[in-house]
TrEMBL record:
Residues 26-49 are annotated as: Disordered. Signal peptide: none annotated. InterPro entries: DUF2202 (IPR019243), Ferritin-like (IPR012347), Ferritin-like_SF (IPR009078). It comes from Thermococcus peptonophilus. Residues 66-223 form the DUF2202 domain. It comes from the Archaea. This is DUF2202 domain-containing protein. CDD domains: Ferritin_like_AB2.
Length: 226
């Protein structure tokens, strides 16, 4: 009797453990693995976004390298500001998630500015405010486009990521400092992730996205055949 009772107790414990595992691994149909809604799938950081540029050697800055750092600081702010504004306008969580990632991108570029004792072009500026009139004009234009509909807002997001990728590709041809290249290559990886996220959301809304800035070949390498 004692042996049967022990076996019965062990069997009951096994059943409880298995049941507990099934419950903890389940998720609601409306959430992904990270706990967010399905529209959030695909957004994310670039590989190595936590890179510490202070551990890499400081090298002499060329004029192109200085211009690249300052320009990308503003362009990453453009992305962050537009996404934050469009999140408030549309309520689409994908904008909120990617806006947080763009804040990280801004910090990565700021680490280069501080390392080389450059003047931060966006210090003290609010949402939608830029040192460059061209960047401020682009912000206003993209926000106005994005406010027309949720689908158009997602297209604005895809456009900004295309722009980021194009500009980073061009700057990477002009810079050779190791720390700048590491930061810019990681920014590009993040932008590729974000582009895939926006395209995924556009397609979920029943529309096919075609690249506006990147070539079909470049776009296909990132997102897949169009």
């Amino acid at each position: 009797m004692k042996r049967n009772a022990i076996f019965g107790l062990v069997g009951l414990l096994i059943i409880l453990v298995v049941a507990s595992g099934c419950i903890s691994s389940s998720s609601t149909p409306n959430e992904n693995a990270s706990g967010g809604p399905p529209e959030d799938k695909g957004y994310g950081k670039g590989v190595g976004e936590d890179v510490d540029v202070s551990t890499l050697p400081a090298e002499n800055l060329s004029q192109d390298e200085m211009a690249a750092i300052l320009y990308m600081r503003e362009e990453e702010k453009l992305a962050r500001d537009v996404y934050l504004t469009l999140y408030n306008e549309t309520g689409l969580t994908v904008f909120r998630n990617i806006e947080k990632s763009e804040e990280t991108h801004m910090d990565m570029v700021l680490s280069l500015i501080e390392k080389y004792n450059l003047t931060d072009p966006v210090e003290g500026l609010g949402i939608g405010e830029f040192a460059s009139p061209e960047m401020e004009s682009l912000y206003n234009e993209l926000v106005e486009r994005g406010k027309t509909s949720k689908l158009e807002a997602l297209k604005v997001g895809a456009y900004i990521e295309e722009l980021d990728i194009k500009d980073l590709n061009e700057w990477l041809e002009k810079v050779d400092n190791q720390d700048i290249r590491v930061v810019f290559e990681n920014l590009r990886k993040g932008s590729e992730n974000h582009l895939r996220a926006f395209v995924n959301n556009i397609e979920k809304n029943g529309e096919k996205y075609s690249p506006v800035i990147l070539s079909e070949e470049e776009y296909s390498e990132i997102v897949g055949p169009n």
